[in-house]
Amino acid sequence: MALGFLKLFRKDRQRRRRLDYYADGLGLRGKSLAAIEEPGFRKAFDTAVELNREGWGGKVPDIRWRAHTAVWAARHGLALEGDFVECGVYLGLLSLTIAHSLDFARVPKRFWLFDTWDGLAEGALTDQEKQRSDQAGWIYRGVYELAARNFAPFPNVTLVRGTLPQSLEGQPIGKIAYLSMDLNSAAPEEAVIRTLWDRITPGGVVLLDDYGWTGFDDQRRMWDGFAAGRGVPILSLPTGQGLILKPPA
Description:
The protein is 40% helix and 17% strand. The protein is an alpha/beta fold. The longest helix has 16 residues, at 2-17.
């Protein structure tokens, strides 16, 4: 048994060595890496990684291609009316990459960041989600101060601490040009999108961080149902993300 596992491990390692890119479950060969090697993006992502290092115990996940997708979506939103909203932030690996890539302190928009910064609300979790939360658990707790430090250079970024969708109440959010969803749970994501959908500007982007990952079936089914009810398609990306462009009214 051990010898067979060792052979499989060696074969897998050899396959990875033949790839031009392997990270975050995505392996590429014969594809251009120019997008994630562009100096401005790489500097922004590296900055976000350094600011996240303490909260991740020094092992920050390499999600460059997911970050590139998020920056593209946010850049698309710059030309649209409305603010940016991210639901599920942790220390801001994606939103920090966006903020530094776009020099967001100079952007005439507000970036609203929603999180408990203290784990998931367990009452809303399915059995699948609770098991996944228990496995990840510790990294999501007690990190609000680190997140606040990370975004301190951006006066137009607002951190809202609390459980969604309740924490949306009373926030002066009007139109939305970019919405990122990463709550690791179907019920609050459904409540949030039902609350915010009408505020999203036509052409605005909804980026789903968990949509295409195995083990996130509850979220995928919820999003498929929501999108079908509104006649909008979801683009499933090899990064595991899902992408919705809100159609014209």
